[in-house]
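User: Please predict the structure of the protein below. I'd like the answer in structure-token form so I can feed it into my own downstream comparison script.

Assistant: Understood. Taking the following sequence of 391 residues as input:
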Amino acid sequence: MARRIDTYLQHLIPEEKFAFYETVRDFGDAAIAPHLLQWEREHQLVPDTCIRAMGDLGLFGLPVPEEYGGQGGDNTDLVLMGLAIGYHSQSVAITPGAALSLGAKPLMLCGTEAQKRAHLPDLAHGERMFVFGLSEPGRGSDAANPQVTAQRRGSNWVIQGEKCWATNAHWASHVIVHALTDPNGPNGRRSTCFVVPMDHPGVFYQEMKGKRVWEQSSTGSIAFADVEVGDDAVLGAVNDGFKVMVTTLNGGRLFVASLALASLAFALDRSRIYAEERIQFDDKPIGRFQRVQDVLVDMDIALERGLTWLLHLCRLYEDNQLTREQAAKVKIDCSRTASELVMLAMEICGGVACFDEFGLIRHHNDLFVTRVGEGSNFALKDLVVRPLRGR
């Protein structure tokens, strides 16, 4: 049975972009799906061989301009990659996804020409990864006021503190550190972003243990002890770190929404096929029951609506017209709706949905991250409501 998501994408994107989506989809079917269960049961991170294969396919350079060694694509390509690979595993999809939306993208948007020339070619080929150091043990939703500090020492900066929940930390060559540089400055003008090598003296990385979501994705804690860097490490302008952060997260929220829709698309296909194969009561499939049909129809409606909305916002993003509220809204809606409907899909399938080889429990668990990643839905609702209150 064909994927339902393909039916919608064919009519929502140009032919050449659908052909790109098909290429990545087929790669996921061949290079990821057959190995995923083994990786999960052996508690492996995404293997280096898979990362190299994604690099060879160009997935780490999708929106990077060709002059810097990338594919010269756009954010729609990035979202299509999330839909194609996230259908099997959000953990695998977030590896190139975060490397781009949280790593290469802030460099593309805010970096100097020297910084772009120094890093983008290797980033585009997957030979180097940047990790975005934003969340902290004591700072989650209040990310605009980091506890990590960077203080002047002569002509240099000295960074102190700790970041956590850093996606791709295991593979990262550099970390973009969002640090407090002017505690007395106006709100939104207190922090600065710095590009720091992971092998710099005083930088310490540790993989965060015990995580039961995005299990093939690396999530690290990164500590900074008297890390001294020069002005050439500043990304963007001094005390303009909030702008770098906001600009970065706008695109990242679109990618997170694509992961939520990818999980919804998988759950729709898995449950609708199961509903026709599962024979009960008078030797007929359970798909004939209206309560089962209601769930399938609701999933189908949500998938088409989410795809249409998300791809529209991708076009706004590419035209520099996407607002923070729009990015937050689609992330909130796609993650919340997919979470609720995947749970109902599991109820349709019953006990078999609990087994890892069936696939639904993976998406159920990973969807939690889409609700809290790139800003928790509760915190983002505070952002979204401001225009409604005239603020």
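That's the full token string. The chain has three domains: 4-129, 131-240, 243-389.
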